[in-house]
Specification:
Blueprint lengths: L6 E2 L2 E2 L10 E16 L5 E3 L5 E14 L4 E15 L4 E5 L3 E11 L6 E11 L15 E14 L2 E14 L6 E13 L2 E12 L19 E14 L2 E14 L1 E14 L1
Antiparallel strand pairs: 1-2, 3-4, 3-5, 3-16, 5-6, 6-7, 6-8, 8-9, 9-10, 10-11, 11-12, 12-13, 13-14, 14-15, 15-16
Length: 267
């Protein structure tokens, strides 16, 4: 699940496929800060020992059409992490998890509902000795189904998209059910407004991990996030996305807010 909502032309590049030899490259910056966490029962509480967690990361997402039916995907991040509380302080900078995958178009007419299937594999690119750790340090395999369509909204056009999948996680972390719903409005040819809801639901029982230094890297958790974005088209093949997100519900995981900015280049 990515925080970047991809738009190609006048359409969302979720189930929409990249044409052969064409694609999109997104380079972004995200700033996340948390002083609270959701308890195993879902209540908001301060982090242990008045802890503060801060993440600043450079992220990239790339898609290219291998054929008109198959799209290749590659993504990754370089996070700078910092945690401190009343008696401890730690910081790290490293390459995070790398992710690669394929999307297969199942139904891609010129209009109406678009449907695609996607598979992603994620693996760590950092040492197990890094603290705070940018991930759980194990491989994941995620399969998902994506659907979306363009929708007339008065004299303008909007879009809606849905994604649901299952993430298999090897090692200690529990498997996950993951979902996303998105909607947006092309206000004019230069500006698009959009919103997203992200959902992660663990499979299995919760294990309380209040003392971890990265409150987002926990073995078992639920998390629900809202994000709003504006995308400005400043050249035919270039866009700028500005976004703000908040964790509004969850269990056994950090609760924070994030700001993001990203530049898109289509080719």
């Amino acid at each position: 699940m990515t925080a970047f909502l991809l738009i190609r032309g006048d359409a969302l590049a979720g189930p929409w496929m990249q044409k052969r030899g064409h694609g999109i490259l997104i380079l972004g910056w995200q700033d996340y800060r948390a002083t609270e966490r959701f308890s195993p029962s879902g209540d908001r509480q301060p982090m242990a020992a008045n802890g503060v967690f801060h993440s600043r990361s450079v992220q990239f997402w790339a898609e290219v059409g291998l054929t008109n039916r198959w799209t290749g995907i590659l993504s990754g991040a370089i996070p700078s992490l910092r945690y401190q509380d009343a008696g401890y302080r730690a910081s790290s900078v490293s390459i995070g998890d790398l992710q690669a995958g394929l999307r297969r178009g199942l139904r891609n007419p010129d209009s109406g509902w678009q449907i695609a299937a996607q598979i992603l594999i994620k693996a760590p690119a950092y040492s197990a000795r890094v603290e705070p750790r940018p991930g759980n340090g194990q491989a994941d395999l995620e399969g998902s189904l994506l659907a979306g369509r363009s929708i007339p909204v008065g004299s303008r056009w909007g879009f809606a998209a849905l994604e649901g999948g299952y993430r298999k996680r090897w090692g200690l972390p529990s498997d996950q059910l993951r979902g996303e719903a998105a909607a947006g409005l092309h206000w004019n040819r230069w500006l698009t407004w959009m919103g997203q809801v992200f959902a992660i639901r663990r499979v299995g029982a919760l294990e309380d991990t209040a003392g971890l230094w990265n409150p987002l890297v926990v073995p078992t958790f639920d998390l629900y996030k809202l994000q709003a974005s504006a995308v400005f088209r400043f050249a035919p093949d270039w866009r700028l996305q500005v976004s703000h997100g908040v964790d509004f519900a969850g269990r056994n995981v950090g609760r924070g807010r994030q700001w993001g900015i990203a530049v898109w280049k289509t080719f």
